[in-house]
Amino acid sequence: MSELLKVTHLHKEFGKNVVLKDINLTVKKGEVVVIIGPSGCGKSTFLRCLNGLEELQDGVITVDGLPVEANKREITKLRQKIGMVFQSYELFPHMSVLDNIILAPLKVQRRNKEEAVREATELLDKVGLLDKKDYFPRQLSGGQKQRVAIVRALLMHPDILLFDEVTAALDPEMVHEVLETMLALARSGSTMLIVTHEMAFAKAVADRIVFIDKGEIVEETTDVADFFKEPSTPRAKKFLSTFTYE
Amino acid sequence: MDKETLVSYIPLYRDALLLTLKIGWQGILFSFVIGLIGAAITHFKVKVLKTIVGIYIELFRNTPLLVQLFFIYFALPKVGVKITAEACGVLGLGLLGGAYMIETFRSGLESIPIIQTESSYSLGMSKLQTFWYIILPQAVSISVPGLLANVIFLLKETSVFSTISLMDLMFTAKDLIGMYAKTIECLFLLVVFYLIMLLPVSIIGALIERRLRYAGFGD
Fold first, then answer.
1. Which of A28, A33, B153, B218 has the most CB within a 10 Å radius?
2. Is residue A8 part of a domain?
């Protein structure tokens, strides 16, 4: 499998506050990588770096061999290869569901409208929201909004999808519907990088687990089941123990 | 009050109202254009232009319209720029209003959370596309109450046009009082005609605001 995303020696700080230090990570095509770690460990900042929403102090990020650099003209081209789904959905409130989804394909990729609408309709149908296509975001539940946000990212045909704690703002019964959608995506061969606190989901979906603490990768493994049973670092052990009540 | 006098003055006031509206709306339209362009410049933090916009705002918000009009009408011809009284009214109102409109649009733009911009960027949208399709439409609908307040304020400010001998409502009233001394009738008609001009704006404004509130964006 070919390398799709390559991060080398990434260093990020806000003023004097070092958020990420010497992060190295490679994601292959079709791989599902789940990033876990305590709040404030830098996982969200890491995702934001990956699509050029943050400037780096050091290091190189490449997607498909092309460097990701914030504030460069080429960044808009690169971002089309990198889909991102936010914790707070960030649908555009003044547009209908369908318009939210087809806006970027039409304006950025200059795709044919009929074709974009057709694909949007298919995808909405797949996530069970076809009947909501003319609704406005405020008329949808959190879970529905998040599924629309996922469809919106998908319609751009990105090479890799980033998920930033996409279920963290949802009521428990809505978490499931969003995770189901993501699981289906993973099984269809999408390349995904997921930041989440849903450990059961992480276990089910991940090809590889990356555990970040205090801005650095502490543990990285493809033995996902083993990691959750018996992590090899004490910091990961301590973190995982916060999810049980024994 | 003398009914006959009132009735006989009405056509004069009507003409004055039409003139006031004509100049008023042109000036307000002009101020909207300045407001949008100025707000966009501040939003994108365009070098140099951003400073010019800042100076412009302070200059026009902190001097009376009367002084600005005198400047345009009496001082500009001295340096060779001739301008009709009507154009002077439109220009003065537009420039004054523009300063207020920029501030109103700007506060609307600032109220849109930055993550909306990031969400748009993450879809590959450019800065300009993000501004045009995502931020501006939301900002404008949030700005509506402030924009309407500006419109009413500017329409009332037209009363100083009388000083550059534009035959607006104020001019007509002063003129008639000076000639026939029917002060009560003239002032009564003056109030009535300002209300005729402004009440519909206020009422339509209130309706739009209520619609926007019920439509209420956001989550």
1. A33
2. yes
Nearest CA in chain B to A47: B122
Q: Are A6 and A19 in contact (CB under 8 A)?
A: no
CATH number for position B40: 1.10.3720.10
Interface confidence, given as ipTM, is: 0.93
Residues of B in contact with A171 (CB under 8 A): none
Q: Are A8 and A24 in contact (CB under 8 A)?
A: yes
A-chain residue closest to B127, CA distance: A76
What does the pLDDT profile of chain A (246 residues) look like in tens digits? 588 999 999 999 998 899 999 999 999 999 999 999 998 889 999 999 999 999 999 999 999 989 998 888 889 999 999 999 999 999 999 999 999 999 999 999 999 999 999 999 999 999 999 999 999 999 999 999 999 999 999 999 999 999 999 999 898 888 999 999 999 999 999 999 999 999 999 999 999 999 999 999 999 999 999 999 999 999 999 999 888 776
Burial class, B136, CB count within 10 angstroms (exposed 0-12 / middle 13-18 / buried 19+): buried
Tally of domains in chain A: 1
Which element (helix H / strand E) includes B180? Answer: helix B169-180
Residue A102 located in a structural domain? no
User: In whole angstroms, how far apart are CA B106 and each of A172, A181, B62, B99, B159?
Assistant: 39, 39, 18, 11, 28
> In the 3-class helix/strand/coil scheme, how is B118-170 assigned residue by residue?
HHHHCCCCCHHHHHHHHHHHHHHHHHHHHHHHHHHHHHHHHHHHHHHCCCCHH
In the chain, the amino acid numbered B26 is: Q
Beta strands of chain B (E only): which ranges? none
- Give the residue numbers spanning the domain of B122: 3-215
3-state secondary structure of A63: strand
Give SS3 for A58. strand
A90 and B134 within 8 Å at the Cβ level: the answer is no
The residue of chain B with its CA nearest to that of A154 is B123
Residues contacting residue A151 through CB under 8 Å, at least 6 positions apart: A101, A120, A123, A124, A127, A129
Which one of A48, A76, A90 has the shortest CB-CB distance to B116?
A90
Domain that holds residue A181: 3-93+158-241
Interface residue A153 vs chain B (CB under 8 A) = yes
- Which of B119, B125, B216 shows the shortest C-beta gap to A86? B119
